[in-house]
Specification:
Oligomer: single chain
Mean pLDDT: 88
Distance between the termini: 55 Å
Number of helices: 10
Structural class: alpha/beta
Radius of gyration: 32 Å
Largest sheet: 5 strands, mixed
């Protein structure tokens, strides 16, 4: 890019047919144009223009150079226009990921609504309970649950989430009710994708490692096992609120319940977040504020 100004001056001289006309077009002096062309010829080690008092004429090297360079200013202008358009309206591919059930139940419907107003976005929405590497796997946005641990990414809080320790009435009738955290190791504990359960004890966050003979990375499979009395599980509110309200499930150890864990919008650290990312994050946060029932 060091010869860009001189190249632009050369192209304009050829187009206008004179140094003075090129200078007017570029809003500089004719002497400045002359110096730029001289510097360019010195840099290239060849003569580009034959100058007379009446006209200019391209040398063989000048003709070749002009043919290769003449489209570059327009290409740069077009590139800048494209970027300017990109910065004004969200367009192009947007790749995001979310835990399966939360994504199916809440995020997918909202994103589908968003796309109705932004048809130029191409959405790639991957639902998985696996903790993806958003950098290596090329994601623009990940929606994650619980405490944020990776400081290499940026995040915005989408909503609160409460996790309930619960069991069916049949299970409690057969095995009794645990009264302390220590008693959990005497019960049939069912675990999902996490092997640690989160509690609060004496005002402090406490994680307990759970061992189990039943494990699945599927939330629906886990809640089905709890409903059928196979054991105790810790599940987020959006899985169990209805069952708790109807009495099908019983909340256990409420005195140890951790008050809130979050749902987070997580994205790579970048110098300038794209308009797509900013618009989508703002949209999701606003929709959850307008309707807290999304996460209840």
């Amino acid at each position: 890019m060091k010869n860009w100004e001189a190249m632009e001056a050369f192209i304009e001289v050829v187009k206008q047919g004179s140094f003075s006309s090129a200078a007017i077009k570029l809003s500089v002096s004719a002497s400045h144009i002359s110096r730029l062309i001289t510097q360019l010829e010195a840099e290239l080690g060849t003569t580009l223009l034959f100058r007379t008092t009446r006209r200019i004429r391209l040398s063989e090297a000048g003709e070749l150079y002009y043919q290769h360079c003449r489209g570059l200013p327009e290409a740069l202008s077009s590139a800048e226009e494209v970027i300017s358009t990109l910065n004004q309206a969200p367009i192009g591919l947007f790749k995001m990921t979310c835990a399966t059930t939360f994504g199916e139940r809440y995020i997918a419907p909202l994103m589908n609504d968003f796309l109705l107003d932004h048809p130029k976005i191409e959405l790639d929405f991957h639902l998985t309970n696996r903790a993806v590497d958003i950098i290596d796997e090329g994601y623009d946005l990940a929606i994650r649950m619980g405490a944020m641990k990776d400081s290499s990414h940026l995040s915005r809080r989408l909503c609160d989430r409460v996790e309930y320790l619960c069991a069916s009435r049949d299970y409690i009738d057969q095995h009794g009710m645990p009264h302390t955290l220590a008693e959990l190791n005497k019960h049939h504990c069912l675990i999902g994708s996490k092997s640690h359960w989160l509690f609060q004890q004496d005002g402090q966050r406490k994680e307990i490692k759970i061992t189990s003979q039943w494990r699945s990375n599927s939330g629906p499979a886990l809640i089905d096992a709890v409903r059928k009395g196979l054991g105790i599980a810790q599940l987020p509110d959006y899985y169990v609120n209805d069952d708790l309200a109807s009495g099908k499930l019983i909340a256990l150890l409420p005195q140890y319940q951790y008050p809130y864990s979050g749902v987070w919008l997580v994205y790579p650290k970048v110098r300038q977040p794209s308009p797509k990312l900013q618009r989508i994050c703002d949209y999701l946060i606003q929709r959850f504020k307008e309707n807290p029932a999304f996460a209840k």
